[in-house]
Amino acid sequence: MTPDYSLCCEKPLTPRPNFIGLVLTRHITGSENQLARKKRRGRTQTSRSIQEIAAPRQRIVKATFPFIQKCVATRIPWPAGSPSGDPTVDDNDFAAIIDYSWDAGIASLHLDPTDFKDCTEEEDKLMCSHISQVRGSLVTAVDALLPTAYGFVPLETLADPTPEKITETLEANRKLDPKQPIDISTMCRHPIFQKLLNIIFFAKKGLNRCSFYFDGMDLLPLETLGLMMDAIICGINRWKTGEHVVINFSAEVYTPVHEDCMKFLEAWVKEYASELQPVDLAAELQSQMLTKACGPSKAPTEVAPIRREMFPMDLFSQT
After folding, report:
1. Which one, 157, 193, 216, 308, has the greatest CB density within 10 A?
2. Distance of alpha carbon 106 from alpha carbon 151, whole angstroms
3. Which residues are CB-contacts of 162 (< 8 A; sequence separation ≥ 6)?
4. 192-201 vs 133-150: helix axis angle to the nearest 10?
5. Residues 202-234, buried b or exposed e (16+ Cβ, 10 A)?
């Protein structure tokens, strides 16, 4: 699925024409852009410490972080390098995210873009290293939720950790079989999805977080839901031996997982958008998940109508 980068940003910001315009053209027509990307200069430094960047540019780098996070959280969870390997072709997800976020950061600080045309290699690497932050936060939150959600028992919580009790606990953990999210019969019904959404994108952040990540959206993006699925799968995989073992939430392993999750979600949406269905339950669920997460940070403007409860995510079970 070709990502729509244009929705990664706030509407008032003016994107770099040779990035947004051409990506939208490719998204709509499927054609490859043949125009060359502007080459950056001055890429001689390699440090990833923001303290080694000049003070005026530190502000810009820091200002890019929220835009990078939003792109990863809502549009491009697992960015890929250039499949063509041609630096003159706009087909590099990393470059697209960084180019846009750099311009967006400058605009958010009300600086003159002509004074800060391009980031250096040092700044580029620092911003790229920030891309994984949302994914890391998700899998960390999953680790905290899984024991309660599915009954895994951490060995360190045993009151009497005798060898027999440890063996018994490991065996019980191994027997637990919470299916992966793309198994429609089990895990997609679980409220861990809503909890994860609330914790990562709304907890202790209020209106600022709500309006930034999902401003103007009525439905939770499928890419966000798919990324949460990826993190839950990784969390479950960490318990395969019966005790919690850290497994990297790496692009190499989980990009294919994400592709499978997205195929499932897209089929699910397509089914409920069918004219054969009296209600588009997929859209209803996406809307309710976002509404539930936004609720605590928004004052109601009117009395909400009474409607059928659609959470937990048992709607998936009908796919």
Report:
1. 193
2. 47
3. none
4. 140
5. beeeeeebbeebbeeeebbbbbbbbbbbbbbbb
SS3 69: helix
Please compute, for residue 171, the number of CA atoms within 13 A of its CA located in the half-sphere on the CB side.
Answer: 6
Q: What is the 3-state secondary structure (H, E, C) of 239-270?
A: CCCCCCCCCCCCHHHHHHHHHHHHHHHHHHHH
Task: Give pLDDT tens digits for 14-37.
Answer: 333 333 222 222 332 333 333 233
**C-alpha to C-alpha distances, 177 to 66, 196, 271, 283, nearest whole angstrom:** 36, 20, 27, 29
Cα–Cα distance, 295 to 301 (Å, whole number): 11
Look up residue 217 and give its amino acid.
M
Distances 233 to 63, 141, 176 between C-alpha atoms, Å? 32, 13, 14
pTM above 0.70, yes or no: yes
Q: Which residues contact 113 (CB under 8 A, 6 or more apart)?
A: 103, 106, 107
Model confidence at 5: pLDDT above 50? no
* Domain ranges (residues) in the chain: 5-131, 134-318
- Residue 105 tokens, joined: 């950061």
**pLDDT per residue as tens digits for the range 32-53:** 333 233 344 444 444 457 777 7
